[in-house]
Design a protein that fits this description.
single chain, alpha/beta, TIM Barrel, eight-stranded parallel β-barrel, two-stranded antiparallel ribbon
Length: 280
């Protein structure tokens, strides 16, 4: 199983250091939003956000993914100013309290990415893959930070209407190849791929992609799997996001077996346990 999963050793250069991905790592989700599908409004001030971050760091998270714009289906489209207001204070405070923390900024906006990196973030996680801000790629070349390139269509407000594919694997691979080439031409080499589970995909398409994740290893980039408590779990089981931890653990296990190097999760301890059980 080890040879099938970790066919090549991969690293990320983060803040001048190499992070080894030969054993999968965990990215913890930390949203400062009132309407995210699972934790919206749960952590809505500096104190509660920092307390949650400290728990995740204690549990062994490698990256904290800070988001101020909810990307659930049909989420409200907030202004850039509001997004900055939500994410910059927590980034500043986290860097102050935990100087060694690795912060990813979850945004599709160039100005938010620049401001966040200026305050100490060291990765950009873009749900749009650069489609929603034409300056994103050239900005990444200037920032020189790793980039999570996600596949999606449309916007959070329109993506549920854009789920028609002739061959979903071929189309997503082609999407990634084109965008990796653009990034490479600009000198951006630390690119992580996220298939975008739940973004412009039906429930069955999500499972088809997860079961065929291994095909995307041919692109020679680390793969991030973000299935934590998503509708592909709670709709299939007819439960709530709050009841979806067990399902998340099952799908995280499958993701690692099929080649994922990063698990993006709400629940760090359980994800780390999955990695310890099947990847060592």
């Amino acid at each position: 199983m080890r040879d099938a999963v970790f066919f090549t050793k991969k690293t990320l250069r983060v803040r001048g250091k190499l992070i080894d991905l030969s054993t999968p790592i965990v990215m913890g989700i930390l949203n400062n939003t009132p309407d995210s599908f699972y934790d919206g409004g749960k952590y809505n001030n500096i104190k509660s956000l920092c307390a949650r971050a400290e728990v995740m760091l204690t549990e062994g998270v490698t990256f904290l993914d800070i988001g101020g714009y909810s990307t659930r289906p049909n989420a409200e489209d907030i202004s850039e100013a509001e997004e900055l207001k939500r994410v910059l204070p927590i980034i500043k405070e986290l860097v102050k309290r935990f100087p060694e923390v690795n912060i990813s900024i979850d945004t599709f906006r160039t100005n938010v990415a620049k401001a966040a990196v200026g305050e100490g973030a060291c990765m950009v996680n873009d749900i749009s893959g650069g489609r929603l801000d034409e300056k994103m790629f050239e900005t990444l070349a200037q920032l020189k930070v790793p980039y999570v390139l996600m596949h999606s269509r449309g916007t959070p407000q329109t993506m549920t209407q854009l789920t028609e594919y002739e061959n979903i694997i071929e189309e997503i691979i082609d999407y990634f190849q084109q965008r990796i080439r653009l990034l490479s031409d600009l000198g951006c080499n630390d690119v992580i791929l996220d298939l975008g589970f739940g973004f412009a995909k039906t429930l069955m398409q999500n499972y088809f992609l997860l079961n065929n994740l291994t095909y995307f290893k041919a692109l020679n980039c680390p793969i991030l799997a973000g299935v934590s408590r998503k509708s592909m779990i709670f709709k299939k089981l007819n439960i709530t996001p709050a009841e979806s931890l067990n399902g998340t653990t099952v799908l995280n296990t499958l993701a690692i077996i099929n080649g994922a190097s990063i698990l993006r999760v709400h629940d760090v301890k359980q994800a780390k346990e999955v990695i310890s059980l099947i990847a060592n």
